[in-house]
Amino acid sequence: MARLGTDKFVVEREKEVATRLSPGVFPTGRQSEWSAQNRTLTHSVHPLTNSVALCVAGKQPREQLKTDIRTYEQDQRIYVCGFGTTPDERLSFVNDTHAVFSAIQSIMDARETHVGVDALLRMSALYREAMLRQVRVLQDARDSEFVRSESDVFQAMHAVWHLLEIVYVTTNAGLSASVVPYYMEWLNFNFPAPAAADGERIIGSSPDSNALAQNPDVWPYVQKLALRGHVTTVANMLERIAPAQVLSAAASRWARELAQTARDMPLASSDETSGSFNARWRRWNSGLQSMATNIGSMLDKADDDALSALAMVVDVMRGDADSISRVGDTWQDVLGAVLLYSEPTAQTERLPALAQLVLEQFESDDFTLVDRTLAALVRHELPEFLVYCNQIDAWLSAHVSDLMQHIGILDSCRRVFKVEPREHYLVFLGERYLTHEGLWRVAMDYFGLCRTRVSQNIMGEYIVRMPLESDRKAQQVLRVCERYKLTEAMERVHRQLGRQKWQRGRLGAAIAHFVRVSDSSAVGQICDQLWAEYLASGQLTYGPIIDSVLATSAHDRVRFLTVYRDFHECYKGGEFKRAGKLLLSILVGEIAPSHAVPDLLVDSIPLLEGDALVFGADDTLELMRCAESVAQSLVDSDVCGVGRDELSIFNVACARNLARSYVMQ
Amino acid sequence: ELVLWTTANPDFQPTDDDKDNDDSESSSPLATLVAKVKHDGDVHDIAAPAPDIVATASSFGMISIYNIGHTDSGDSSLSLREAVTAHKFANGEPAVATSLSVQPTNSADAEIASCGEDGRIAYAPILRLDALQRHEVDSTVITGVCWPMPTQLAIATRAGQVKLFDRRAPAEVQAVFVDPSNTYEFECIAAHPSQSFRLATGTDTGAVLLWDIRNPKKPTMEAFNVHESNVWSVGFHPSDAAKIVSCSEDASLAVTQWVSDSDRQSRGVRHLSGFFNTLSVNCFDVCPFTRTSIIIAGSDSGNLLMEKTAASDFAIY
Fold first, then answer.
1. What is the pTM of this model?
2. Do A471 and B143 count as a contact with CB atoms less than 8 A apart?
3. What is the ipTM of this complex?
């Protein structure tokens, strides 16, 4: 079979998805009529989730049409369609595997290489458990097309993951571990054959060995059992068949011999050296070879169906490639038997060559997606493998590329792909998860644990578009920004929150957010708003609002409002001297906005006119200086909240106070 | 959605000294779903004023009361009895009701107090929700509310203040407590079940603060840094008030022994977390009715976490 060309897999095509709008926008088949009535569809794509909002729009505005057209109820509808969303049924799977994924990243971070492989094996087993759990849950669910396709997907993912684990992780751990027992375990778990039900049926329908021997299904069944290495069952079946009367003496005898040989098949044990195992195996194999020759010579002399079927079983078990190919249905079967019966101590390095030989015998066009994936894996063609994984499911390609990265085999793929594969697939999966509103945090973790600059940027863009429905959600978003060091995104979120609270009239909280990002113009504007409210209502109610702002904020306007509030309290409390000092400190420190200064000067009038001397000579001069600058700016512009009369009263009061102060001092 | 679950009473289970993992495979699930009902908006807080009533605070600013019904055949159901909008912003948008607390009296006319992002506290008698009163008390988000006494209410705000109110004069702040040395933001507050001068608050940096407000001018405060991230909920253990339980964004629960008691248990912290639970633990509750203490918590990973431990002070004579 020719190797797939590079151009065939580097360019991926996304599966096209189409949805029918239902109820429809126009009656079926009448699209041209509908379109002729100045109608078309317009859309808007959601920034975060893969959903699109659609509605009917006019090609031209209705007012510009020469003749008016009728409107229909369908014109008022808005449709929201989702694509590539994560279904609810997968939620527990997503959460569990997310926990395993995070654990892997933190384990590998710890950089203890000798622990690494064991830990990876455990984590890999946890992934597989999660997949199997999901399959079980789906089996319990009500049957539907969705459930069936999901079930297929998860079983496929499990088969692929299991093989990946065997080929790259399990055998990495052992010193010179053979891949064969693991391969057989994988084969028999994920592609069980022959079906136990078949065996029961055959035995059930044949009450005695005669009937059994005559049952047309029995020999193929035994051959398949042998192919899969179920040697004990083979032996049992042969012993049941052997006493049949219909069998020739030779067949009967050889059946018993074969049963015995099957039971004697050497199995590797951990405390045996490979040398002694090989020796035992060669002896066993040569026993089978001689059996085959003997049976062959008997068959030359006379035709015997049972005996030739038996010969086939012997041929399979002695590792004859042709017989194995004839008995085996799928390439996985054939590869398994080849490994088991001709190279039982084969290591992973042998797999590609053997697999190539086996795969050549099969038509690659008939392969399913799973077959292609497994074939690519077995032949160690990793870039192809990754691409096929992605076609099975986004979850698979993301986690496979992550595992490959940690084992260290992803480098060969990097030369082939234009973009970094792990990052590409993890980001893709994260975007899938974002389509479900409950999985946003999981998606953020996938982006974050990807740890590349590109994923950081993408994460920053998505996080600032998260809807901030509640205070707690906002806090969680800020925590995510903090954890993954997205300082720019954090600032943007604070600004958003500030604006949100401003609109809702929560001015104190808004100020606090803007102070965090040092947005002094926004703080200034809010303070101006507070000041304007005070002027309008005459009641100083902003006190508690200012109190709650962080005391450490050094913003001028905030300080101005705070000191002014203190001034107000002192004045109300009758502490005029202190009040005067505070007022003066505002004017001297120039922390008041220019439009507020005239009001402050007017506020000082009662203090100037009061019985006690509040302002000394210097203070009064200061006040007058301020008045001067105000008058100056009044000349320049006509805008002033305070009337000129009041200013002249102020000037008179100042003069009187000045005189008084000179007298009293 | 509001969902009712039931779990086996651990007091009546055969005592196993060794809890093997193999046993858990064959035993029944930890909790089974009993009833479900639709809820408008997200549920931000739940309280159970009576055995057959559940009150919730929603993200649309509503307080809703649900009845739990039991039929003769053993089925249970949840149904909405009344709902009222308690929290709104000045521009008309609904404000999230962040927390709820039930007045600790035995009278039939007990009240529910709820606080929200609009800086208001709302009071409503449980039996007549439409007689709701609202009072604006703070300019930032109020994150938690509790009743140290039937006539006194305490709130925790995001600006790091604990404010006390007298129910009889609800719009006036009776006292304000701040920690001047630290800029905390409080996420939750809880009152000691019997000592009304002790309050516990959880902060956004992972500390649990224990307040003693006997002297309102000089409250004392002790900080326990038990978590690494926002402490979403805090509470005194109903059977052993020397323990404070808290749950946090860092996906764990902590049980803090804040005072050494007569059983020679010294001060310390115990952490609870699960391998498959990596996301924030949002809320928890402790079952006050069984001798074995059950702590149950809910997390963002969609998990219901439970811990059932034998009571340490129960002995067989």
1. 0.82
2. yes
3. 0.85
